[in-house]
Amino acid sequence: MARTGQAPETRPLPTGDHDRTALKGSVSAPDHQGPALDLAPKHGVDAAGDYRGLDAPLDTSLLADRYRLLQPLARGGMGTVWHGHDELLTREVAIKEVALPAGPERTIVAERTRQEARVTARISHPNVAGVYDVVEVSGQPWIVLELVRSRTLGQRLAHDGPLSPRTVAKIGLELLRGLCAAHAAGIVHLDVKPDNVLLAHDGRVVLTDFGIAVMDGDASLTQTGTLTGTMAFLAPERVTGDICRQSDLWSLGATLFMAVEGRPPFCRDTAIHTLVAVLADPPDPFQRAGPLASVLAGLLDKNPATRLDAVGASEQLRHVADLWPLKDEPAADAVLHIPVAATSSAEAASESGPCSAWSCPSPINYAESGIH
Question: What is the reported pTM?
Answer without folding.
Answer: 0.71
